[in-house]
Amino acid sequence: MKKVLVACGGAVATSTVAANKVKAILKENNIQADVSQCRVSELGSKSQGADLIISTAKVDRDYGVPVVHGLPFISGVGLDKTKQEILDILK
Amino acid sequence: MSNALLDRDLILLNQTCQTVEEVLETIAAPMQAKQFAKETYADGLKEREQSFATGIPTEPFGVAIPHTDASYVLESKIGLLTLKEPVSFGVMGAENDQVDVKVVLLLGLADGSAHLKALQTIVERIQDAHFVKKLASVQEKNEALALLDASITKQLEGE
């Protein structure tokens, strides 16, 4: 089971939008993963054991986990590329 | 227009603003004047925009969705401001990136879960370049209200 963290800066709003889409992509591709949400400020305590961080806000620390920028889930621009990045990391 | 989330005075078309602050003050003014939000609402929007920008680089030009803590809001509303000339907003989640915004959708919602639903609905819609273009070019308040109702607020009220 892979572990994916979806993070955003403020409240839970944009990360929820992104997390729903990430779940759909993983399901489409038969990837079993535990997708959870947090704030960027919580990544320090929650990133342990994660396979991937997807963030709609800027992540400036290195948690030793690959980070994918999740803005395309909100804007729709560049979404295919982002999907592929996520699949490449988790496959 | 029967939708409670919409108000004619919150539809501001073809505005001329130079800065993000001016945009936020302009769209906050009717929220405050009609007591849909507290007097400090514009400050709340500006503060939030500074720490977490809300510009989204959609096609064919950017959309911003300013919002702030639900505690500033007394009655939930969704507002629209369109700009004659684009104003440069910070990009959501990126520290130094800017995006030219022509459409501003104000999320003035009095509770967190309503924010979430509205945001999800709006995010789905603004990924459609035709819709963004249509919003930016709408010339009449009635047309704008009908467009927002059909594409955004009807879904939200129906739940």
Overview features:
heterodimer, A: alpha/beta, Rossmann fold, four-stranded parallel beta sheet, globular, B: alpha/beta, PTS_EIIB_2/3 (chain A), PTS galactitol transporter subunit IIB (chain A), transferase (chain A), protein-N(PI)-phosphohistidine-sugar phosphotransferase activity (chain A), PTS_EIIB-like_sf (chain A)
- Mean pLDDT score of chain A, rounded? 90
Computed CA radius of gyration of chain A, to the nearest angstrom: 12 Å
Estimate the helix proportion of chain B, in percent: 40-55%
Strand content of chain A: 15-25%
Q: What global shape of chain B is seen?
A: globular
What overall geometry of chain A do the principal axes of the alpha carbons give? globular
Widest β-sheet, arrangement of strands of chain A:
2-1-3-4
Which CATH architecture of chain A is right? Answer: 3-Layer(aba) Sandwich
Terminal Cα span of chain B? 18 Å
Runs of chain B in which pLDDT lies below 50 for 5 or more consecutive residues are none
Give a short account of the largest sheet of chain A. 4 strands, parallel
Structure class of chain A: alpha/beta
Q: Give, in order, the helices and strands of chain B.
A: EHHEEEEHHH
Number of helices of chain A: 4
Largest sheet of chain B: 5 strands, mixed
Q: Looking at CATH, which topology of chain A would you report?
A: Rossmann fold
The overall strand count of chain A is 4
N-to-C terminal Cα separation of chain A, in Å? 11 Å
